[in-house]
Write a structure and sequence with these properties.
A: mainly beta, six-stranded mixed beta sheet, B: mainly beta, globular
């Protein structure tokens, strides 16, 4: 069975500091990988995705992530965060086996302090 | 602008009631999903559908059923609501590429309270 692990439930960071949110997955077959963000009282929106090609993926709002197949990781990074980045971030995996299952991690709450 | 619309933002139902949560997408997507979101547990997959009249159980299907009679509409049914089904319910849709999902689009969510 496939699974997604987000190792940190909450990450506090000061404004303008760099941040990394960690995501590891488990799958015996190829995967597509996603990061979503959820602002308070809103639905989820896509930050970035990896389907194929370059392992370094750039998304919206200055975020990027790197797919590391050997370590089965897809960590999200931003070099300098803003107060407005305070939100919950979810990593997700779609297994490429025509089961069309889309699995999410438990989420990481990013708290940016002034 | 792409859209996934959930019929209600907030619902309050009594224990034992039959509850219908409706979701409509306007993107002609093959796949549709129902998740519940609880603090500390992330999004847990209840059911999903990859075609009209097709459905697959997710990780927590107990106490729920689904219906997909038309491509654009995916309904979640709580046969007999219980207090432990109080949660935020999120609907999503996606298209497919090479056997996997591409980007999923989400509705705004329905916060269901069962009293």
């Amino acid at each position: 069975a496939q699974s997604v692990t987000q190792l940190d439930s909450q990450v506090p960071v000061f404004e303008e500091a760099p941040v990394e949110l960690r995501c590891n997955y488990s799958s015996s077959v190829s995967v597509y990988l996603f990061w979503y963000v959820q602002y308070p009282n809103q639905g989820l929106q896509l930050l970035l995705k990896y389907l194929s090609g370059s392992t370094l993926v750039k998304g919206i709002n200055g975020f990027e992530a790197e797919f590391n197949k050997s370590q089965t990781s897809f960590h999200l990074r931003k070099p300098s965060v803003h107060i407005s980045d305070t939100a919950e971030y979810f990593c997700a995996v779609s297994v490429v086996d025509s089961s069309y299952k889309l699995i999410f991690g438990s989420g990481t709450r990013l708290l940016v302090r002034p | 602008d792409v859209k996934v619309t959930q019929s209600s933002r907030y619902l309050v139902k009594r224990t034992g009631e039959k509850v219908f949560l409706e979701c409509v997408q306007d993107m002609d997507h093959e796949n549709m999903f129902w998740y519940r979101q609880d603090p500390g547990l992330g999004l847990r997959l209840i059911y999903f559908s990859y075609d009209v009249k097709m459905k697959e159980k997710g990780d927590i299907p107990e106490g729920y059923s689904v219906s997909r009679e038309k491509k654009e509409r995916f309904s979640l049914i709580l046969e007999s609501a219980s207090t432990n089904q109080t949660s935020m319910y999120l609907c999503a849709s996606s298209s497919t590429l090479g056997g996997g999902n591409t980007e999923a689009f989400f509705g705004q969510g329905t916060r269901l309270t069962v009293v």
